[in-house]
Amino acid sequence: MAHPLAPYIFLLRNPARSVPITIVIALAVLLICGIVALVHSIPLSVREIYGYSRNFSAALPRSDPSYLPTLEAQLSESPVPIERVLKIRVAFFNVRSIVGKLPFVLHGLKPEDAAFLRQRMGLSQLTGRLPAVGAPEAVITRPIAVNLGLDIGDELLRPDDPQNYSPQPVRVVGIHESDYWFAYGDYTYVAQNHFPPVDDLVIVAKDQPRFDRWAVERFKGTKARILTHAELLRETDESLAVLLQLLSVVIGMLVVVVTVMIGLFINIYLSQRITEFGLLQAIGFTRGFLARRAGVEASIIVIGAWLLGVLVSVGVLWIVKITLMDPRAYFLDPLDWYGIAYTLPLPLAVLLASFLTIRIRFARFDPVEVIERRIA
Amino acid sequence: MIEARNVSLEYNDHGKIVYACRDVNLRIAKGEFVGVLGPSGSGKSSLLYLLSGLKEPTAGSVLFEGKPYTHLSERERAEIRRKRFGFVFQYPYLVGFLTALENVIAGAEALEPARDRAEALLSEMGLGEKMHRLPSELSGGERQRVCVARALLWDPDVVFADEPTASLDAATGREVVRQLVERRRGALVMVTHDPRILGGADRILRIEGGLVTETSVEVAETADSRVEEG
Ligand SMILES: Nc1ncnc2c1ncn2[C@@H]1O[C@H](COP(=O)(O)OP(=O)(O)OP(=O)(O)O)[C@@H](O)[C@H]1O
Ligand SMILES: [Mg+2]
C-alpha cells in the first residue's frame, strides 16, 4: 500500500490540477523544441546540401582569364600535396530548401575530370547514362532529384526559366544514388553557353582541410576567391547567429511567461490546499516535511511534463519530417539535442519558481489560523 | 504529564491587548478526563493550543513530561503531536483526496499495522462499509467519527478535543463524544460550552476572559444549563 501522503497520490487523485500544468509545460516545450529544430534545420540544410564541398575547394579568378596562369602557379606553391587541379565551368540552378531557394552549381566537367570526381566522391551507382560531350545534359544525385521532383528526361535548366537558365533545355540523363547533393554536366556545353567564359579551378588535395587553411591564408588580399567547406560552414553560422540570438530572446520571454504562469498556478493550488497543510501540521507534520512534499509534487509534474513535452516534440517533428520534409529532401532532425537543450531553462525556471513559492508560503505558516478558520 | 506554569497568551488587537489566557497554572495527569468549559471567546481553544504546543505562550511556560515546549525544536514538537497526541477539532478536518481509512493512517509510521488497526477501529465505530469513501461522500457526523478514529489510532497519551460536537446535531454529537470517551486509553482534554457532554469527566476547568478556575462536575452542569435555558 502506498503511503497516503506520498507526493504522487495527490497528483493522481487531482488530475484537474496536475493535468493543466502538465499540458502548459509540455506545450511550451513542444513550441521551443519545434521552433529551434526548424531554425536549426537551416544550417543543417546548408551543411547537407553543400556537403560535397568537403571533397575539394575552388579557386575563382573573378572573371579575369588573364589571371588564371598566375593563380595556377601560385597554387603549385602549396606545401600540402595536391592530387589534381580541375578546370571547370559553372552554370547555376536553384534547389528548394526550408528557407526558400538556394543557388546550386551545375559543374561543367571534362569527362576525365568527371570520372575522377565520381571515384573520389563514391558516385558509382548510376541510373541512366553520363552526359555526352557538347550535349545539354546533366547528371544529378538522388537528393536533388527528390528535391526538384526530377526524373531522367526532365529538364534541369530551360531557356524560359530565368532562375534555372540555359539557352537550350538541359535534360537529366543520369541519377546517382548517393547522399551527396551534386550535379554535373559537360564542360564543353557549359563553356559555350554560360557566362563568364572563364575557367574556375577545383583543387583536390590529399589533406583537404589543411590545404584549405593554407589557400585561404595565401590568397588573402589577392584577386582570387577561394571557396572552402570550412568557410561555408563559418559563413552559415555567422549569418544564423543573429537569428539564433533573436530566438533566444523569444524563448527567454516564453520561459518567463510560462514560469510566472506556473508560479501563479502553484500559488493558487497551495492556497486551495491550505486546510490540508494546516491540518497535517496540527496533527504532527513539520513545515519542512510539507514543503518538501509540495516540492517533490512540483518536481514530478515539472520533470514529467518536460519529458512528455520532449517526447511529443520528437514525435511531432518525426511526423513533420516524414510527411513534409523528406518528400522534398528538406532536413530536420527530430532528435535535435540543440532544441532539447533550449527547452531546459523552462523546467529549471519553473522548478525554481515553485520552490520559491513553496518556501515563501511555508516560511510563516500557523496551523492554528487554519484550524480556527481564519484563513481557508 | 502536561504542566502549565503562569501561562498567558495575549493578542495585540489593533493596539488593544486581548488576553486569550491569563496566568494559567494547571496539570494534566496521565489518563485523566479534563473538561474545559466556557463561553464563546473565553479562551478555551487558546488553552488547548497552548497545552498541545501548537501555540507559544507570551508569558510563562508549558511543559510536556517536564520539558518546556520552547526548549524543543519544531521537529520534536511535531513528533510529540504525531506520536503522543491525538486531535479532534471543532470542524471535521480531513484531507479531501484521501479516503476515510487513508486519513486515519496518514500520520502513522508503519502502514500495514496501522491499516489493520484503523480498519478494526472504523468498523467498530460503524464505518466499516464506508472506510473507502472520500470525505466528500460522508456526512458531517461520519467525518467527525473518522477524525476520532484518527486521533485514537495509536492510543495516544493525550487526546485534545476542541468542541467536537459543535458542527453536529445533538444525538450525533453525543455519539461521537461517547466513542471518544470510551475508546481512549490516555488522557482526554475536551473543550466545550455544553456541560452535558462532560458527564464522565474527572475534573472540569472553567475559563472566562482567559482566567481558569476549577469547578466540580455537578456545579458546572447546573450553572451552565441554567444559563442556557435562561
Ligand atoms: N489571532 C488572534 N488575534 C486577536 N485575537 C485573538 C486571536 N485569536 C484569538 N483571539 C482572541 O482570544 C480570545 C480567546 O479566543 P479562543 O479562540 O481561545 O476562544 P474560545 O473560547 O475557543 O471561543 P469559541 O468557543 O468561540 O471557539 C478571544 O477573545 C479572541 O477574540
Ligand atoms: Mg474555540
Strand element count of chain A: 10
Please report the number of helical segments of chain A: 13
Strand order of the largest sheet of chain B: 6-7-8-3-9-10
Largest interface by residue count?
Answer: A-B, 27 and 33 residues
How would you sum up the major sheet of chain B?
6 strands, mixed
Helix content percent band of chain B: 25-40%
Query: Which descriptor suits the 3D outline of chain A?
Result: elongated
Mean pLDDT of chain A: 92
Give unreliable regions of chain A as ranges.
none
Percentage of residues in strands of chain B: 25-35%
Number of strands of chain B: 10
Contiguous runs where pLDDT drops below 50 for at least 5 residues of chain B: 225-230
Would you list the SSEs of chain B in sequence order as H and E? EEEHEEHEHHHEHEEEH
Rg of chain A to the nearest angstrom? 31 Å
Shape of chain B: globular
Oligomer: heterodimer
The level of helicity of chain A is 55-70%
Give an account of the 3D structure.
The complex is a heterodimer of chains A (376) and B (230). Chain A is of the alpha+beta class. Chain A has 2 domains: 7-47 and 237-371, no CATH class; 82-205, no CATH class. Chain A contains 13 helices and 10 strands. Chain A is elongated. Chain B has helices at 44-51, 74-83, 100-105, 111-124, 140-152, 170-183, 217-229, and strands at 2-13, 16-28, 33-37, 59-64, 67-68, 85-88, 158-162, 187-192, 203-208, 211-215. Chain B contains 7 helices and 10 strands. Chain B starts with a strand and ends with a helix. Chain B is an alpha/beta fold and 230 residues long. In chain B, helix 5 packs parallel to helix 6 (170-183). Classes of the chains: A alpha+beta (376), B alpha/beta (230). The interface between A and B is medium-sized, with 27 and 33 residues.
